[in-house]
């Protein structure tokens, strides 16, 4: 078998990382973000990518428990981080 | 529906509601009776199913002998105890020289995630080869301590039964003592706070601090949360053991007495860790997507149906975990199957966007407690009515 799943995961991680960096740069230019918001966005993006990597690889290995804990401890804070950043950006507009 | 919502129509609606409440109660009682009829379980047939290589010959209610090709291999006993989810049973198979050959778990009503963790650790293999005369020292599985202790007690009980009834030797099992430790004190303090102190909390910051303490202490550290397994367990006698889980008993009895005597639910919105977490999330997001009136009604009827189905299945199967869908143990014990994790994450995201989404539209515990409240109201109203009628009759006389 050519694809075992891990290739797709790494491809998705690459796409996600690129997209998040492009999005942060784009919004930084558009809204002239403060360093605090950029920092928050970067940390959230890193957590989101990390959560996808952790949970994805755990699922491929058949470890649902680890995937769930990864999603909860890395994915959910990333979601909250993005949300707070969005709120701050909208407030500062 | 009456456009003026006149008094007679309102009284009619209330009467219809109380009728529905009583019909539901009747159906639940019926399923409880059906469950009692169908689940008079036979432990020996379960042992035969699990160990097809042996021929089981019961000697009395709990003791049996087992054969392979008509040659007696040894004796076995069935031991019972109560874990976190209710009763659990094991069969201990000893060889003729009084050493343990095998321990087989039979019935259990533990939360599936806890039980899975337990089985993964191959807990029962530690008993193989141990002597019946000595109390075995087996380490509890971390994260499933209550279940481990309950299984240890069940195995010890079975071993002692074998010693006493089959080998006619002295037993070593000491009866467990009820301990009122720091966990019990913490639950008691939380209960008292929810009765009196919570009313004084008006300030937003103090409320945030209170809910944070509830999430961390009650949720993640003590893992004490009222679950529908406890409420249904009361009805089918499958509550966790009193000796090992005194804190849960304090919580359950305290909350129910609060409703029956004072008519108020002192658990939901006060000391429930899952509600506290939802409150904190909604405070972070500061968003509350309004659900329309129609959707609200549909979701509330949906919840009523789901809760009714949960209790019906539980009462018929006598297994409180069969239809359990609460995400509490997945979150606070970090144990769950793939689907449970997915459900939990979706709930948390929804709680971020809609205030108290789980409490309002999905929580079986909150719904059950409000049902008990409405039953209390119906009973009180009927008593008042009959008193009033008596008074009027006396006046006429």
Gap between N and C termini of chain A: 51 Å
Assign a percent range to the helix content of chain B.
Answer: 55-70%
Q: Which structural class do the helices and strands of chain A define? A: mainly alpha
Mean pLDDT of chain A: 89
Tertiary shape of chain A? elongated
Class by SSE composition of chain B: alpha+beta
Describe this structure in words.
The complex is a heterodimer of chains A (93) and B (397). Chain A has 3 helices and no strands. Chain A has one domain. Chain A is elongated, with a radius of gyration of 15 Å. Chain A has helices spanning 6-31, 35-60, 64-92. By secondary structure, chain A is mostly helical. With 397 residues, chain B is of the alpha+beta class. Chain B folds into 2 domains: 11-36 and 179-384, no CATH class; 49-166, no CATH class. Chain B is built from 14 helices and 5 strands. Chain B has a 5-stranded antiparallel beta sheet with strand order 1-2-3-4-5. In chain B, β1 and β2 form a beta hairpin. In chain B, α1 (7-38) packs parallel to α10, α6 packs across α9 and α9 packs across α12. The relative contact order of chain B is 0.10. The model of chain B has no long low-confidence stretch (mean pLDDT 85). Chain A binds chain B through residues 59, 64-65, 67-69, 71-72, 75-76, 79-80, 83-84, 87, and chain B through 281, 284-286, 330-331, 334-338, 340-342, 344-345, 348-349, 352.
């Amino acid at each position: 078998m050519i694809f075992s799943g891990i290739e797709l995961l790494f491809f998705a991680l690459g796409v996600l990382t690129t997209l998040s960096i492009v999005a942060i740069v784009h919004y930084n230019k558009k809204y002239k973000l403060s360093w605090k918001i950029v920092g928050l966005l970067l940390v959230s993006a890193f957590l989101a990518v990390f959560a996808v990597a952790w949970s994805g690889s755990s699922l491929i290995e058949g470890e649902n428990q680890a995937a769930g804990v990864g999603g909860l401890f890395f994915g959910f804070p990333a979601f909250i981080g993005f949300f707070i950043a969005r709120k701050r950006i909208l407030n500062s507009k | 529906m009456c456009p003026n919502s006149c008094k007679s129509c309102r009284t009619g609606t209330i009467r219809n509601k109380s009728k529905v409440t009583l019909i539901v109660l009747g159906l639940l009682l019926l399923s409880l009776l059906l469950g009692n009829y169908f689940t008079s379980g036979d432990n020996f047939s379960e042992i035969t199913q699990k160990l097809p290589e042996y021929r089981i010959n019961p000697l009395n209610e709990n003791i049996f002998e087992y054969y392979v090709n008509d040659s007696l291999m040894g004796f076995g006993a069935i031991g019972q105890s109560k874990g976190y989810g209710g009763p659990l049973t094991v069969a201990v198979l000893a060889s003729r020289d009084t050493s343990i050959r095998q321990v087989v778990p039979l019935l259990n009503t533990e939360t599936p995630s806890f039980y899975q963790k337990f089985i993964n650790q191959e807990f029962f293999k530690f008993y193989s080869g141990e002597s019946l005369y000595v109390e075995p020292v087996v380490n509890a599985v971390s994260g499933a301590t209550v279940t481990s202790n309950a299984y240890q007690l069940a195995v010890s009980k079975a071993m002692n039964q074998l010693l006493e009834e089959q080998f006619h030797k002295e037993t070593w099992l000491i009866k467990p003592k009820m301990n009122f430790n720091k966990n019990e004190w913490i639950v008691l303090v939380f209960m008292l706070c929810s009765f009196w102190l919570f009313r004084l909390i008006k300030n937003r910051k103090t409320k945030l601090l209170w809910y944070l303490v509830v999430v961390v202490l009650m949720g993640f550290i003590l893992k004490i949360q009222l679950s529908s397994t406890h409420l249904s367990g009361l009805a089918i006698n499958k509550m966790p053991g009193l000796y090992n889980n005194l804190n849960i008993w304090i919580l359950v009895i305290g909350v129910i007495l609060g409703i029956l005597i004072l008519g108020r639910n002192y658990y939901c919105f006060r000391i429930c860790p899952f509600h506290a977490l939802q409150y904190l999330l909604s405070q972070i997001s500061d968003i509350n997507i309004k659900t329309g009136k129609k959707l609200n009604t549909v979701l509330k009827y949906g919840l009523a149906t789901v809760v009714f189905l949960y209790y019906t299945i539980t009462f018929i199967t006598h297994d409180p975990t069969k239809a359990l869908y609460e995400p509490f143990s997945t979150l606070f014990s970090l144990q769950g199957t793939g689907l449970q994790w997915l459900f939990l994450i979706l709930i948390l995201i929804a709680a971020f966007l809609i205030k108290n989404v789980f409490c309002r539209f999905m929580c079986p515990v909150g719904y059950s407690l409000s049902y008990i409240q409405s039953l209390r109201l119906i009973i009180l109203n009927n008593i008042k009515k009959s008193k009033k009628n008596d008074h009027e009759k006396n006046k006429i006389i």
